[in-house]
């Protein structure tokens, strides 16, 4: 039996989905921005992030290059995980909170 490379437990798509959902909920604990990003992929390029936020991809690259928004470079392409985008939105936008 082949191992998945993820320890002794093996890979579970349901378990992975639960972990991804948990990371998103932790990044936006008040669920302010999560509905806005519903339906978007877990890993997004700058164009996808820009479209979701109604800004330009250049503005997103500026945030990534400045370290304000966290992502990973794959060659010349930036990839932003949904929890990192949620964390950025939650921490940097002045949404009235109780």
Q: Can you walk through the features of this model?
A:
This protein has 98 residues and is α+β, with helices and mostly antiparallel strands. The chain has four helices and three strands. The chain has helices at residues 13-27, 46-53, 57-65, 82-92, and strands spanning 43-45, 72-74, 77-81. The protein has a three-stranded antiparallel beta sheet. A hairpin with a 2-residue loop joins β2 (72-74) and β3 (77-81). The longest helix has 15 residues, at 13-27. The protein is globular and about 40 Å long.
The count of β-strands is 3
Shape: globular
Count of helical regions: 4
Structural class: alpha+beta
Task: Give the C-alpha Rg.
Answer: 15 Å
How does the major sheet shape up? 3 strands, antiparallel
The helix content is 40-55%
Mean pLDDT: 86
Task: Record the strand order, biggest sheet.
Answer: 1-3-2
N- to C-terminal distance: 53 Å
What's a quick, concise take on this entry?
By secondary structure, this protein is an alpha+beta fold. 44% of the residues lie in helices and 11% in strands.
SSE order and pairing:
Elements: H1 13-27, E1 43-45, H2 46-53, H3 57-65, E2 72-74, E3 77-81, H4 82-92
Antiparallel strand pairs: 1-3, 2-3
Helix pairs in contact: 1-4, 2-3
């Amino acid at each position: 039996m082949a191992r998945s490379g993820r320890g002794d437990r093996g890979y579970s798509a349901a378990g992975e989905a639960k972990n991804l959902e948990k990371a998103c909920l932790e990044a936006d604990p008040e669920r302010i921005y999560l509905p806005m990003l519903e339906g978007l992929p877990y890993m997004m390029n700058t164009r996808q992030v820009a479209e979701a936020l109604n800004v330009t991809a250049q503005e997103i690259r500026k945030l990534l290059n400045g370290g304000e928004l966290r992502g990973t470079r794959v060659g010349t392409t930036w990839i932003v995980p949904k929890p990192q985008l949620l964390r950025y939105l939650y921490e940097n936008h002045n949404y009235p909170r109780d």
